[in-house]
Predict the structure.
Amino acid sequence: MNACTYSTMLGTYHDGELSAEDRSKVEAHLAHCPACAAELEHYVRLSGTFAAFEPPRIAPEALRRIANEPPVWVQRGYLRFVESLTGIAAAILLAASGWMIYQQRVAIPVATAPTSALSVAMNPEQLDTSDTRTPLPDWVDDLASQQRAE
Ligand SMILES: [Zn+2]
């Protein structure tokens, strides 16, 4: 690349992408700028080299093998399915853990509860209704009243 201001247009000139006006400006400039003429000659030689390049031939057996191979998206499909299941399982585990932690904070502290809800449900006569410091859940009261009715 040379320091001439036209050098930035030489690539697009070579590719035939300049407007007619710019193309005639570049052609007028090329007549008296040896640096740009040399750079354009370089582009022409480089294009000739690429045009002469012949891509390597692939053996027919290799082409058949490639054609019979399942596409990459099928090969990766199973892996993506397993990955998404793993992600869903992790999300459920996190949500369940968070819910359990939340439930433990909301639950009646064991130290201040008069008796455990399960023991009251099993032996309703233990229920001390005069103690109103920490109310028992409604289902415990329901179970206790059902036990008393029997
Ligand atoms: Zn120039």
